[in-house]
Amino acid sequence: MASSTRTHIDTLLQHTGTAAFDEVSGAAPVALPPMRTSTVRFKDLAALDVAQKRKAAGDRVVTYGRMGMDTNAALEDVFKQLEGGTHCYLAPSGLSAVTMTMLALLSAGDHALVSDNVYGPVRYLDQTVLQRLNISITYFSSQDDLEALRQDNTKLLYVESPGSLLFEMLDIPALATFANRHGLVLAADNTWGSGYIYRPLELGAHVSVIAGTKYVGGHSDLMLGAVVTTNEAIAKKLNQTQYAMGYAVSADDAWLALRGVRTLPIRMTHHAASALTVCTFLESRPEVARIHHPAWAKDPGHALWQRDCTGSNGMLAVALKLDAERARRFVDALTLFGIGFSWGGYESLVQYVEPSTLTPHRYWNHATETLVRLHIGLEATQDIIDDLTQALDRASA
Ligand SMILES: *Cc1c(COP(=O)(O)O)cnc(C)c1O
After folding, report:
1. Domains recognised in the chain with CATH numbers
2. Atom of ligand 1 at shortest range from CA of 213
3. pLDDT at 4 over 60
């Protein structure tokens, strides 16, 4: 198949990472099998020498199992297609993709600017590991503050857009302009977009980080992360760090992600349409103070979403005019929503967001409200709305 930049991503997702034909039989399975291995063996020393030379030159040549063989390589190709990147490094979870990025791009004495809406465990990484390595972080609330917060040792601008609690859209092109002016690397956590509905690299970011655990896997049955870039120098650092830290992904997990991603187009479209219908329903309820979902026209980030995104997903947060006790009763009364973290699988999920989690978020100054995050799954939309209706009725009774 000729590769053309005009081929739609939906098509590429069905035709990337397929099995090659067997040279003798001329046959191939449609789905590439999981190629498990710890050790790679070579026909003779000459073959090993060739492999070592190509590897030293930067080619993806496997001489040992940690890097993963064809299944992992196929998944890397899929992430490159999704994100519009030229290099992809897999990690055993989304969080390890974040740590790979930080450890590749920061050294002792360096400083990073991180958006205050960042995925919670990034603060834990900062407090436990980065500080110990003498790497410092300043969290910023507004893009207007960046100039004042930048230090001489600032090397990295790390953002998440939209945030994963209130779904604030950041202006990635403006952040890229700032980063380029000061020689900083701009890295974006793109788990929300997963390369399908939002492409930070095309908007100017240098690195895109994805938790494949969410929409790429899509079935709540694996942990996986990826880091994608188009920048050769950054790719080299990521490659070294991935190798040095021993980040390895099982071929079975890579296979599950490959299997999941083929249906990403229809899943994402359905999640998004259903979530928007749920927003319309929620707005009609007296218990609802505000809806956070960038595809929702009243969301403060809607204009940026229209400019920078090509779609939406099933994530939304709803601010309730209910006290904590009633909000918790609402969550407990839901029957179709699993109470749990994470998202991006086929099922609906609910998270009661602890108020302390929201303290650093500039968008949140509504002390009298409670916040509940919903992932709208692939259940029939009307059943989801019926469930939300009975739970809101019970909570406010
Ligand atoms: C879930 C998530 C991660 C971490 O992914 P894991 O695979 O759970 O480690 C990182 N960033 C965002 C935005 C996430 O939602």
Report:
1. 17-261 (3.40.640.10), 264-396 (3.90.1150.10)
2. 7
3. no
